[in-house]
Structures are given as C-alpha cells and as structure tokens.
C-alpha cells in the first residue's frame, strides 16, 4: 500500500518508527464492504462490549500451561456503580452472553450471593437463604473463577458479590413446520457453569450473523441447491446426497447408495478373544504372588535407592505402569476394569509378569515382606541377599529389562474405554477390502421430508446428526464435518471408544480407522496415516442405521460364555 513509506532493508542497528507501517483507514479495502467491521461472532474474542482498562503487570498468566515470567497485558473490568440485585434476578430464564471475551450464548438458571440463592420456579423467582455449606461453596466458586480468569485470560474482575449460574449453548438445529417455515431451536448443555455477574452481557449492540439471529428461515435457505447432505433415516441411513431443489415442504435429493459391511465374522472374532482376560486371583494362584504385589507391580511401584555420593536417595520405578486406579487410567491391551469395579488382565500381561518373576525371583520374594510400608529402600532388600549383592547394578538391570518390554510407554486411556487390539487390524482391513470387491453403488433421486436430512454446513454447535444413535466397537461411520483434518465423507471403522474425565455424551471420543490414508492421520498397528480421534458430532453411524432394520433380538451379538480354569488350561498347554 502507498500508506507504507519505509525503506527496506534496514541497516544493522537501525530502527524505524512504527508509524511508518500504519496504513491510513481511507486506503484500506474491505473484502466484504457491506458487512459490519466489528460484529459479534461466536467463538471470536470481542473485548469491546465491556468497559475496561489495560495495564501491564507481573501477573504470572499461563501460556501453554507455563507461568509467564514477563509482564502480562491485564484487562481490568470497569467497576460499575452498585448494580441492584433485581437487575440480575430479572435475567432468570433469559438468554445472555458469557465467557468474555469469547462470547457464547447461555441460559440463566440461577443467581447466587453469599446470603441468598435465586432460582426460577413456575415462572416466579424463588428466594432461599444460603446455609453455611452453601456460603462456603459460593466463596470457593468465586475464588476459583477469579483465579482462572486472571491466570488464563488476564482478566481482573475485581470484587465479585453475585455469581450467575448458566447453561451454555450446545447447538442450534432447524425445526420444520408443515407450512414450510423453519424455526431455529436452541439446545442447552446439562452441565451448569458459574460466571461473575460483571462478565454477563444481556444485550449486544452489534449485529449477529443472520443464521444465528433469525428465528425463521425458508426451506431453501437450510437446504440450498447443490448442498451436500446426509440421510438420517432408512433406507439409505448415512448416505451422502446432493440437493437439487425444494418445493411443497419436500427436498429433492440425489443420493449415492452403497452397501456397508456388517463385519459379523470380525465381531465374533473380537468377542471370542474375551477368553484371554483373567481375574487377579487366577494370575496370583499360578504366579505364586500375593494380590497386593500384583496390584502394585502393574502400576507405578517405586523403590528408593541410595545416591552414589551417599547423600539422600532417588526413587526408581520397577512397575509395569499399565494401570492407575487413582487416575482412572489403563493400558487397554493389558488391563481393563469390569462392571463390579474389579480388574482383569490380559494373557499378554500374564506372560510378561511370569517372565518378570522367573528373571528376578529374589526381588519378588523380598518385596512380599515390604508391601505394607509407605517407602521401600533398596538397602533393605540388599541386606537379605548378602554382602556380595550389587544392589545398584541389580536395579539397573531391572530398569533396562523393563524398557525392553511392550508395556514400556504403553498408551493409557480412561477406565471404561473400549479399545480394539492392534493384532486384529490385519483381519479388519482384509474384511473391508473383500467387501469393496463386491459392493454395488448406485444413485437415486427422491423427494423427502426435510427432517430426514442433515446439512453439516448449517448445523451449529456440537449436536450430533442423530441424537438417538449409539456407537459400538467395529461400527462403520462416515465423517460429516467439512472443517476437519479428516477429509469430508471419508468412511472408517470405530476401533476405540474413549471415556472422558466428565461422564457426559460430549466427553466421549471415538478412535476411527479410516479406509484411506490422509495427511495428519495417525498410525495404528501396521496402518500409517489412517487413524484419528473423532467427536460424536462429526460422525454418522452406518451400522446403527443397519441395526434399526433388524429385529430387536438380532441387534447385538451375544458374547461367548466364560470357561472355567482358563488360565490353568493355557499354562498346561504351553508346558
């Protein structure tokens, strides 16, 4: 631009005034001249809606989870005059904007002070006195939110006397009426969030996008011509289609129909390997170790060893690190938690522990006498093994051997997750490749009701395409999200179901092994660039649609009954 008037390059040690790089406003050309310069957009920071002052201070704000050592830019929210409590209670049941400066919509469900709680009951504000434990809870919430705002976002809210309880928006979906009108329906999260009253906005002065602001839209606006949509009913559940037009409350769509494999044989193979999981008492009986030692050795088991200089000790980990009960983590190839809260271990882990016991028998023998101690010193074990025993070299050998095992740096997932073993990948790919040889693909032009179609470009938020769909291991799915690392329309198979720390539908993640490789894909077994972790709102489930066409009794495959003395049979066969 002609507004920049600086000679380039600069000589070493020479600096230009920053005003040389400023472009005059009259020389700027907007890509969309008819759009507002500073409108509200969900998810984008918009700090102009609250009066604030900026200062640079040593606040230790976290950047990439590390505290900043330099000064930070702090937004001090303007301490407004004493706001009457009635102004906040009037917001009950109303829609507001929270999470400043990344504003998102939310529904107010409660107003809390240190002395009273206000909720909406039968369209009337109900007031209740806060008991002592609720007073303590209010102080804790206030302190937690203020610390988080300052350390993460650099926002200083000042004195907080009122906390607003809200349910943030989960997504918006179109609702179709018989007359052809379309209404946007908002869905709110079940989880509640607490926000300082100073950061709650009830009215925005800037315009919002048309798709988010309008209550009514036309059918052609939701399903424009040539839009890519997915079918959410049978026949053709999950099939990709192209809109060719809309008329008389019907949408004309050209659908691409193709058969997907049910993978019945593969599912039975997976279920048959349930025989390879054993209870701790079975393993302890065969290995001749106590259940407590088995529990410790499968987790992180630390022993203190004296430093070379003779001052102090250093802990070394002699555990296999395949489960952490306190953190609710496990290595799915070696351990799993069952419904009654107990643990089961795989045959592969039994083989490893058996080799561990045979290779270092004196270690396991001595550990049995020290399990109830808070700390175990290597010198205590060395005393029992004689003066010629080199304790340092011994535990160095243990550590070196542990690093050579397949359990070293095992991938840990949340307890309750279902992860397919990588040893089944070859058969899975072979079954899919065999199906592709005989699959038939054909097009069909139909006129359908708009409620049986899903337009991923119109969907807003994290609502799944079909809220009733359930996902199981080995299900066939398709990516419906266009703004994703995985290419739009890619098909794959669920090989893992991960539970999050919070028990909710949105916290579940699915590991999908896609049929084709793509840039950014992860490795899984012998497959490179095929795997990716997906969220529920990015997937449609072909297998769920096929299960709907079957009788209820055939929708699940019964697992084989558990045999008795499975581990003893396994040991006898290998003897």
Features:
single chain, 575 residues, 9-stranded antiparallel beta sheet, 7-stranded antiparallel beta sheet, 14 helices, 34 strands, disordered N terminus
Write up this protein:
This protein is of the alpha+beta class and 575 residues long. 22% of the residues lie in helices and 28% in strands. The protein contains 14 helices and 34 strands. Strands 5, 6, 7, 8, 10, 11, 12, 13 and 28 form a nine-stranded antiparallel β-sheet that branches. Strands 25, 29, 30, 31, 32, 33 and 34 form a seven-stranded antiparallel β-sheet that branches. A hairpin with a 2-residue loop joins strand 15 (240-247) and strand 16 (250-258). Residues 1-6, 209-216, 560-565 and 568-575 have low confidence and may be disordered.
Would you spell out the secondary-structure blueprint of this structure?
Elements: E1 52-57, E2 62-63, E3 66-67, E4 72-77, H1 85-89, E5 95-98, E6 104-112, E7 116-121, E8 124-129, H2 132-153, E9 155-156, E10 163-176, E11 182-188, E12 193-196, H3 210-213, E13 216-217, H4 219-222, E14 228-231, E15 240-247, E16 250-258, H5 264-272, E17 277-278, H6 280-287, H7 291-297, E18 302-306, E19 313-317, E20 323-324, E21 329-330, E22 335-337, E23 343-346, H8 347-359, H9 361-367, H10 378-384, H11 391-403, E24 413-414, E25 418-419, H12 425-438, E26 441-448, E27 453-454, E28 460-461, E29 476-479, E30 491-498, E31 509-514, E32 522-524, E33 527-534, E34 539-541, H13 542-548, H14 566-574
Parallel strand pairs: 4-9
Antiparallel strand pairs: 1-4, 2-3, 5-6, 6-7, 6-10, 7-8, 10-11, 10-12, 10-28, 11-13, 14-15, 14-27, 15-16, 16-26, 17-23, 18-19, 20-21, 21-24, 22-23, 25-30, 29-30, 29-34, 30-31, 31-33, 32-33
């Amino acid at each position: 631009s002609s507004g920049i008037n600086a000679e380039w390059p600069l000589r070493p040690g020479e600096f230009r005034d920053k005003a040389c790089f400023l472009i005059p406003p009259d020389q700027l050309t907007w890509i969309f001249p008819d759009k507002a310069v500073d409108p509200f957009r969900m998810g984008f920071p918009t700090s102009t809606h609250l009066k604030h002052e900026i200062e640079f201070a040593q606040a230790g704000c976290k950047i990439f989870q590390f505290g900043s050592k330099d000064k930070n830019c702090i937004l001090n929210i303007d301490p407004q005059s004493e706001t009457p409590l009635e102004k906040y209670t009037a917001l009950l049941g109303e829609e507001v904007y929270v999470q400043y400066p990344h504003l998102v919509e939310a529904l107010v469900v409660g107003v809390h002070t240190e002395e009273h709680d206000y909720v909406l009951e039968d369209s009337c504000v109900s007031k209740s006195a806060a008991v002592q434990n609720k007073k303590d809870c209010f102080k804790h919430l206030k302190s937690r939110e203020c610390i988080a705002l300052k350390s993460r976002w650099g926002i200083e809210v000042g004195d907080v006397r009122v906390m607003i309880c809200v349910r943030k928006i989960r997504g918006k979906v179109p609702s179709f009426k018989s007359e052809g009108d379309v209404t946007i329906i908002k869905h709110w999260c079940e989880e509640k969030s607490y926000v300082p009253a100073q950061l709650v906005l009830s009215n925005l002065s800037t315009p919002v996008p048309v798709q988010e602001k309008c209550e009514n839209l036309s059918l052609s606006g939701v399903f424009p011509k040539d839009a890519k949509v997915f079918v959410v009913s049978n026949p053709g559940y999950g099939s990709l289609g192209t809109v060719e037009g809309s008329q008389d409350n019907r949408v004309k769509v050209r659908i691409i129909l193709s058969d997907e494999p049910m993978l019945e044989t593969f599912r039975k193979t997976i279920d048959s390997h349930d025989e390879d999981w054993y209870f701790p008492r079975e393993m302890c009986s065969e290995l001749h170790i106590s259940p407590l030692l088995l529990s410790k050795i499968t987790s992180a088991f630390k022993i203190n060893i004296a430093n070379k200089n003779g001052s102090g000790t250093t802990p070394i980990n002699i555990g296999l690190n395949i489960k952490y009960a306190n953190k609710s983590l496990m290595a799915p190839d070696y351990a799993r938690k069952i419904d009654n809260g107990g643990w089961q271990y795989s045959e592969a882990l039994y083989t490893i522990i058996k080799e561990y016991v045979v290779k270092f028998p004196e270690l396991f023998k001595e550990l049995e006498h020290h399990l109830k101690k808070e700390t175990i010193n290597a010198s205590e074990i060395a005393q029992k093994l004689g003066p010629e025993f080199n304790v340092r070299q011994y535990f160095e050998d243990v550590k070196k051997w542990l690093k050579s095992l397949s359990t070293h740096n095992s991938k840990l997932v949340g307890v309750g997750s279902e992860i397919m073993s990588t040893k089944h990948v070859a058969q899975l790919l072979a079954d899919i490749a065999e199906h592709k040889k005989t699959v038939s693909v054909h097009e069909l032009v139909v006129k359908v009701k708009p409620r049986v179609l899903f337009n991923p470009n119109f969907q807003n938020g994290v609502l799944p395409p079909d809220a009733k769909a359930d996902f199981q291991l080995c299900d066939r799915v398709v990516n419906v999200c266009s703004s994703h690392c995985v290419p739009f329309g890619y098909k794959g198979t669920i090989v893992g179901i991960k539970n999050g720390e919070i028990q909710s539908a949105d916290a579940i993640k699915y590991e999908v092994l896609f049929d084709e490789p793509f840039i950014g894909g992860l490795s899984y077994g012998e497959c490179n660039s095929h795997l990716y972790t997906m969220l529920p709102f990015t997937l449609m489930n072909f297998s769920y649609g096929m299960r709907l066409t079957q009788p209820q009794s055939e929708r699940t495959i019964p697992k084989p009954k558990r045999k008795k003395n499975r581990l003893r049979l396994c040991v006898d066969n290998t003897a």
